[in-house]
Design brief:
The complex is a heterotrimer of chains A (about 300), B (about 325) and C (about 325).
Chain A lengths: L2 H18 L4 H10 L2 H18 L1 H4 L21 E2 L5 E2 L10 H37 L1 H15 L3 H12 L3 H29 L1 H8 L4 H37 L11 H12 L5 H28 L6
Antiparallel strand pairs in A: 1-2
Helix pairs in contact in A: 3-5, 3-12, 5-6, 5-8, 5-10, 5-11, 5-12, 6-8, 7-8, 8-10, 10-11, 10-12, 11-12
Chain B lengths: L1 H27 L4 H5 L6 H11 L5 H13 L13 H36 L4 H15 L2 H15 L12 E3 L2 E3 L4 H34 L2 H8 L4 H39 L4 H11 L2 H29 L1 H9 L1
Antiparallel strand pairs in B: 1-2
Chain C lengths: L6 E12 L2 E13 L4 E6 L5 H9 L6 E10 L2 E2 L5 H7 L4 E4 L13 H10 L6 H14 L5 H5 L8 H13 L5 E5 L7 H18 L2 E6 L2 H7 L2 E6 L2 E7 H6 L4 H8 L48 E3 L3 E3 L9 H8 L1
Parallel strand pairs in C: 3-8, 3-9, 6-7, 7-8
Antiparallel strand pairs in C: 1-2, 1-4, 4-5, 9-10, 10-12, 11-12
Classes of the chains: A mainly alpha (about 300), B mainly alpha (about 325), C alpha/beta (about 325).
The structure holds adenosine-5'-triphosphate and magnesium ion.
């Protein structure tokens, strides 16, 4: 550790002691977070859903992708009826005769995968461009931010729609569309934070001490951008999952062979008027629970990590 | 002020040009419309004639040039499917979409601002917490699924409201409007609420956040120190401050409403331009897709412009900056 | 004191219940002020002066609360009155000038709106009459071309002008009691003099009582009749202004006076009170000033009681300077 680093940590320690008693910031963060029961519940649900998605092949009663075991004779069974294979379809079956429970767990897997995957890629791209923009300043900054502004002035759904119309269907294409839609948010957030952080004294003192630019960027700027990134990240993942479902519903996005939750709902839509509610309702509930949980956590994170609202 | 408007106008023009290029080149890449339009048993000659008549044999930049020169005359091409000017087809569907968006916006404002301000004034109360949790729900619920559920409950199970389509319309000031008859109103209600849900949540949160922030300001305390009525503090001092961000965002979001009506219109078979777009995507009807996107681009640029100007009227600080610069 | 006091504060306590603990911003203060008199409230930053002012007007916000004591305004306990009664009193009977002139005016409302509403909240007068009065009030605090200025927004004013507008608003309804929180710090000397003159005139003519919060002992010396010295939420010394300033008995008052530049010879190093003001969440046991006090001894580990000194002075100290003449002369020699 250099002298400055020590000074900085010392200063921070002092601040922490003054404002937060003798707790560590992390403990304080945890206790703040846990103050909202809903957020904790949301977090537990997310963990549960993630486990379901990861271990899908082990948990589902049938394999919805195995065309040999799926038969049209099982189609549109009401919840609780027995399928040809003898397994009980607790939540019914869809139009193709797939067990809804299994189809939903697999669908969840795809939805989560696409949502989180696109979120991570978008975040990496956004961080790179955002930091670069904040750091380079001048023309580069102006250009990047103009692009970001223009893109963000159009709603995500429209941008994704145009992209998918051009690119066609498929997991990879959906992923690309979702990344394109999201990166600008990250770029703008991180640039904003970086600019604010840059003006702080400790960065100035680091510059005065002649620390290299890269070092300042990664040792000092990045850690301070983590809090806003976490907040934007959670919200964006929820948004991406919802967007993917919407695109699939519109017949773009994920192909019929790999049905995400959105596709499943869309498939059930045609049977709604005849009262066969389960094909649309249950995947929708799964989608809803997932997104609500993520948003509850994200919302709490924003309240906890936003220093302005802290008393 | 006028310098400010002229500068914004120029910026808007540049955005329109850039977007027209992106839109055109994007859509240019879509599939092969000839495949769909020409019957399978057509011979090579007929195919080529078709391609020629649609101008598809020319290089991309030439096609773009033709597109721009025609577009400047208000001609955005003819629909491959309907053989009618794409622009007319879309303008024909536009009032339905606009009505849906405007009714939704009204719902979002009329319910959102009071709920949000209330939640901001009494953040610890039971009601406020429910409002906020509700707004998370509104954010999280995928619009199309809510739409389906609304149809399931109110149309299929309860039979209260019609599930699809647009009802009776009256022509008022040259605009077909449906909210003034029960039949029309009952048709527009579900789609409008469906479309409004997301914006409603947003207005609630903006209004709440704004209220909370403003309430902590010294000038509110000073207003209390003057002995003003609580109602005047909230309705004038707080409201005028939060209206600025809310109006800005809502204005900007009007375009979002129009864009998102693509989803709602598909669910409720509302005969607007969003549904036309989705149908055209299915049919690879390029001119309609291009025309739709260009109109949306125009709409967005226009909205941005109007919001900027409105903003400068509402917030005296912005006005001053622009006079200076 | 022969007249009935306008304001009589007894053992007032205002605490802030923060996550880090209870901050006793105002902890048992007692003072009173008679009509037409000026009370100077001085103390270091964070000693609780502003919170005292807010407590009187019932404007303490979450997480703070007035937890005890009485605030008797003409015999009426402001801690017990209804919210509506309190509102009626604010602005008409009791008004306050805030510390930060940049933040006190609503940025999106014109000055005339903000002044006229202050009048019309309490009196049924026409807009024209209210505007007339607003204009006169602006003239009174030395704002040129008040008619034009009324139509301006706050951001078009300088800090000093905003403060004068705030002062004008406080004077609008000719209150009985004004709490002025460092009102002249943002103003230049000539304007400061003018404002002080106007305020003094108001006090003597209409019998308005004034609580003048400040860091500036010279203003207090020239303006105030009484002085209260605050330290860490307590009034450590109070009394008639000349008596206290000429012969400070509390070591903290003494420190304050000797750290005023004008009291020193030019070029001589300023004496200053050693150490920092303590954090309210972490007050030392006993007398809060003891760790910084030259005269502290083992007695100071215990909270001193309020004691009366000659000339109606009150004091919160185990070892007042008077009884420590040896130390005192050593210090000054
Ligand atoms: N909203 C609040 N939350 C927590 N503590 C507060 C709050 N407002 C004031 N305090 C505490 O009350 C104490 C007194 O504050 P106050 O504003 O009265 O000081 P002051 O004497 O007016 O200082 P200055 O001369 O700087 O204006 C401070 O130590 C502060 O920590
Ligand atoms: Mg103060």
């Amino acid at each position: 550790m250099t002298a400055t680093d020590q000074d900085i940590t010392e200063n921070k320690k002092q601040d922490a002691q003054e404002f937060e008693g003798l707790q560590t910031p992390f403990k304080r963060f945890l206790s703040d977070f846990c103050e909202s029961k809903l957020a904790v519940l949301g977090f537990l649900v997310i963990v549960g859903i993630a486990l379901l998605a990861i271990f899908a092949p082990l948990l589902t009663p049938t394999d919805p992708y195995d065309l040999t075991s799926v038969t049209i004779l099982d189609s549109r069974l009401a919840p609780g009826e027995k399928m040809m294979s003898g397994t009980v379809a607790y939540l019914g079956t869809d139009g193709a005769g797939r067990d809804m429970v299994s189809a939903m767990i697999y669908g969840l897997r795809i939805s989560l995968g696409v949502g989180i995957g696109s979120g991570i890629i978008a975040m990496l791209i956004g961080i790179s461009f955002g930091l670069l923009s904040a750091y380079a300043g001048g023309r580069v900054d102006a250009l990047f931010m103009r692009i970001v502004d223009i893109q963000l002035s159009f709603p995500a759904i429209l941008v994704a729609l145009v992209l998918l119309v051009t690119l066609g269907k498929g997991v990879d294409k959906t992923l690309i569309a979702l990344v394109v839609v999201q990166w600008a948010y990250y770029a703008r957030t991180i640039r904003g934070t970086a600019l604010v952080e840059r003006r702080r004294e400790y960065i100035e003192s680091a510059v005065c001490l002649g620390l290299s630019k890269n070092r300042i960027m990664f040792r000092h700027l990045l850690p301070n951008c983590i809090a806003p990134m976490i907040v934007v990240g959670t919200m964006q993942v929820a948004h991406a999952i919802s967007l993917e479902a919407t695109l699939s519903f519109l017949g773009l996005g994920m192909p019929q062979t790999e049905p995400s939750l959105g596709r499943l709902i869309s498939n059930g839509f045609e049977y709604i008027l005849s009262g066969k509610y389960w094909i649309s309702v249950f995947p929708g509930l799964a989608l809803l629970v997932t997104i609500v949980s993520i948003n509850l956590v994200g919302d709490r994170l924003r309240d906890v990590l936003n220093p302005r609202l802290q008393k | 002020m006028s310098v400010f408007i002229i500068r914004r106008l120029l910026q808007s023009g540049v955005v329109v040009i850039i977007m027209s290029f992106i839109v055109f080149s994007g859509v240019f890449l879509i599939g092969d419309p000839v495949e769909i339009l020409v019957s399978d048993d057509a011979d090579q000659e007929e195919r080529e004639e078709m391609i020629k008549s649609m101008g598809l044999d020319k290089p991309f930049l030439v096609q773009y040039g033709i597109f721009v020169s025609k577009a400047l005359k208000g001609n955005l091409g003819e629909s491959f499917v309907f053989n009618e000017p794409a622009l007319l087809l879309i303008l024909d569907r536009m009032p339905a979409t606009m009505e849906l968006a405007v009714v939704s916006l009204m719902i979002a404002i009329i319910f959102g601002i009071p709920l949000g301000v209330w939640a901001g004034l009494k953040p610890e109360s039971w009601a406020s917490k429910s409002i906020m949790t509700g707004s998370i729900l509104g954010f999280s619920l995928p619009t199309f699924w809510v739409g389906i559920m609304m149809i399931l409950f109110f149309a299929v199970m309860l039979g209260w409201l019609p599930s699809t389509g647009r009802g009776d319309v009256q022509v008022i000031l040259g605009m077909p409007i449906s909210i003034f008859s029960w039949d029309g109103f009952s048709h527009v209600l579900m789609p409008a609420v469906n479309l409004a849900l997301f914006k409603l949540s947003m207005v609630i949160r903006l209004a709440r956040a704004g209220t909370r922030e403003v309430l902590h300001q010294d000038y509110i305390k000073f207003a209390k120190a003057k002995g003003l009525q609580e109602s005047r503090i909230i309705l004038v001092h707080v409201m005028k401050n939060i209206l600025i961000p809310v109006v800005t965002v809502l204005g900007l979001e009007f375009g979002g409403l129009v864009a998102f009506s693509v989803v709602t219109e598909t669910v409720f078979a509302w005969p607007g331009m969003g549904k036309l777009l989705i149908d055209s995507i299915g049919l690879l009807d390029r001119p309609i897709i291009v025309a739709y996107l260009m109109i949306i681009v125009f709409l967005f640029v226009f909205i941005n412009l109007v919001v900027d100007i409105l903003y400068s009227i509402l917030d005296p600080r912005v006005r001053l900056q622009d006079v200076k610069s | 004191m022969t007249q009935k006091p306008t304001l009589d504060v007894k053992d007032l306590r205002t605490y802030f219940f923060t996550k880090g603990g209870v901050a006793k911003a105002v902890d048992g203060i007692t003072f009173s002020i008679a009509p037409g008199k000026v009370l100077g409230l001085v103390g270091e930053s964070g000693s609780g002066k502003t919170v005292t002012g807010f407590s009187i007007l019932g404007l303490v916000d979450q997480p703070g609360r007035v937890v005890g004591g009485e605030i008797l305004y003409r015999g009426e306990d402001l801690n017990k009155v209804s919210a509506e009664r309190m509102r009626e009193l604010r602005g008409v009977n009791i008004s306050m000038i805030f510390q930060d002139p940049m933040m006190t005016l609503n940025p999106v409302l014109r000055i005339d709106t903000q002044m006229i509403e202050a009048i019309r909240a309490h009196e049924k007068v026409s807009k024209e009459i209210a505007r007339q009065r607003a204009r006169d009030a602006l003239g009174q605090v030395g704002i040129a071309s008040p008619d034009e200025r009324l139509r301006a927004y706050p951001h078009q004013f300088s800090g000093g002008m905003r403060q004068r507008v705030a002062i004008a608003i406080a004077l609008l309804n000719k209150p009985d009691l004004i709490v002025a929180d460092e009102p002249t710090t943002a103003l230049d000397v000539t304007i400061q003099g003018q404002i002080l003159y106007e305020v003094q005139k108001l006090c003597s003519q209409t019998g308005t009582a004034l609580i003048w919060i400040t860091h500036d002992l010279s203003v207090v010396a020239g303006l105030a009749d009484q002085i209260c010295v605050m330290y860490a939420g307590k009034i450590v010394e109070s009394g008639e202004v000349n008596a206290v300033l000429d012969n400070p008995m509390h070591p903290y008052t003494h420190g304050l006076i000797t750290s005023v530049p004008s009291k020193n010879k030019r070029g001589a190093p300023l004496s200053q009170i050693p150490g920092m003001a303590p954090s309210l969440l972490n007050l030392p046991k006993g007398c809060a000033f003891a760790p910084r006090c030259k005269w502290s001894n083992s007695n100071c580990q215990e909270q001193p009681d309020m004691r009366l000194a000659p000339e109606n002075r009150r004091l919160l100290c185990h070892n007042p300077i008077e009884y420590n003449n040896d130390n005192f002369s050593q210090e000054t020699s």
